[in-house]
């Protein structure tokens, strides 16, 4: 990210969410973005993952100039190269854990057999295979977050983006999620984590702090 500026407009007010952010993230790194609510952490993730375009500046992922891509290519980048995990698991209530992951993979273009195999492997990776055929309403909050992580990992993303995954979990479950996130990083998958939880941030290889849309020095 080079000189990235992002403004949000509404009700005649303009708020600068990112104020000239320059940041280099290394391949295979677990980077934690820490800061208070409203500091710009989520806006940084959204810009990095191609959900929001910057108003100014440049973003490249793995050499791919995502800030300059036309809409169709940007959508393809999001589906194929990124995985997401948010505060809410956002699972489809009428689908089982396995079906939620398969659905995501089918949308990314995988054939049914490959999608099913990857989904089961991802559930095994987060130690949730025995719950594969349970619906979200039959899972605890921590289990739902583990399904959300499995859904993201099943895509084998180059870039895994995680936003406040433990904010609504008890401390023991949060530690389980932290360990799973740590194990998710590999030479093929870089993880960027936004959190105000310093215990969670401690599992990262590196931490940077955001304040008022800027990286603190």
Structure description:
There is one protein chain. The chain has 217 residues and is an alpha/beta fold. It has a domain of 151 residues: Rossmann fold (3-Layer(aba) Sandwich), CATH 3.40.50.300. The chain is 35% helix and 23% strand. The protein has 7 helices and 9 strands. It has a 6-stranded mixed beta sheet, sandwiched between helices. A hairpin with a 2-residue loop joins strand 1 and strand 2. Helix 3 runs parallel beside helix 5 and helix 4 packs across helix 5. The longest helix has 14 residues. The mean pLDDT is 93.
Q: If you consult CATH, what is the topology of the domain at 2-92 and 156-215?
A: Rossmann fold
Say how many strands there are. Answer: 9
> Residue-averaged pLDDT, rounded?
93
Strand composition percent: 15-25%
Helix content: 25-40%
Cα separation of the termini:
16 Å
Low-confidence segments, given as residue ranges, are none
Q: Helix count? A: 7
- The top-level CATH class of the domain at 2-92 and 156-215 is Alpha Beta
Shape: globular
Name the structural class: alpha/beta
* Cα gyration radius (Å): 17 Å
CATH superfamily of the domain at 2-92 and 156-215: P-loop containing nucleotide triphosphate hydrolases
Assembly state here? single chain
